Amino acid sequence: MEDFIYQLAEEILSDLRLDKMLINISEKIKNYIGAERASLFIYDQEHNTLNSVVILADSKTLKTVQIPVSKESVAGYTVISGRILNIKDVHNFDELYKIDRQLRYHSPWLYIPEVETKSMISVPIKKDEKILGVFQAINKKGGFTKEDERKLKKLAPLIAIALDRALSLNQLEMLRIIERTILDNVMEGIALVDLNYRIKEINSSFIEMLGFRFSEDDMINKSIFEFIPSLKDYEKNFDFVLDNNISEEIPMEIMRVKIIPINWESMHKKDIKYLALIFNFPRG
């Protein structure tokens, strides 16, 4: 099993894009335990749903699946109970009734006509006792065993780490899109520079301020002084911001420039990593 854990970790690290990771993990574990199909669901606490993607019969098309968290589904019940469910026949009402009187079967495989679910194993994925998702596999010849439960219980912490990391990266990407949208919709020109005054990011208003003479690709990793030479006369102001970690405004002849230090805290130490330059310039 240790070899498989190593292989799974390698597979996870190879692609942390959320949709790809959901499929990669599911396919790898499905083959390992001998199931027909498998799916990894993400728990959306805000909307109280489980979300995933499944591969349709042609093995190319992806379909988004959403299941409400309730006792009306095995996956939902797994979130509510926080325990592994190993069901021989999901259509056997008596078997479901013995687990919980309200438990019902809701199939995420309805979009795949060729798949008829019988046996199912459903495993909660937790990190620090917080539910992140649910792993489900279906249709193993002879049903899923106690050994399958043991294997999946051992794999669950690794899946949790991968899911947590992918969700964090997904959140960062979303924040990045929000940041980019805001930057491109403010009137002021904005440039983010490193401590060597190399441009790391700019918004569309900054490009407009320079008369559209340069593209973003032209400016990234180049010195800000190359495009606004007069800024070099104010290096003392830049030094003041760096030495005191406070903002400073420069009243230039045709514009005002505000220098803002961007701090990054790491290992309980706060350092200035970038400077944000906000250019307020006359229009028209």
Strand and helix map with partners:
Elements lengths: L1 H13 L3 H16 L3 E8 L4 E7 L6 E7 L5 H8 L3 E3 L5 H7 L20 E8 L2 E9 L7 H38 L5 E6 L4 E4 L1 H6 L6 H4 L4 H4 L7 H10 L3 E4 L4 E11 L2 E12 L4
Antiparallel strand pairs: 1-2, 1-6, 2-3, 4-5, 5-6, 7-8, 7-11, 9-10, 10-11
Give an account of the 3D structure.
This protein has 284 residues and is of the alpha+beta class. It has two domains: 167 residues, GAF domain (Beta-Lactamase); 95 residues, PAS domain (Beta-Lactamase, 2-Layer Sandwich). Strands 3-2-1-6-5-4 form a six-stranded antiparallel sheet, sandwiched between helices. Strands 8-7-11-10-9 form a five-stranded antiparallel sheet. Helix 2 packs antiparallel against helix 5. The protein is elongated, with a radius of gyration of 27 Å. The N and C termini lie far apart (69 Å).
Search tags:
Beta-Lactamase, 28% strand, 6-stranded antiparallel beta sheet, 284 residues, alpha+beta
Give a quick precis of the structure.
The chain is 37% helix and 28% strand. The protein has 9 helices and 11 strands. The strands form 2 sheets. It has a 6-stranded antiparallel sheet, sandwiched between helices.
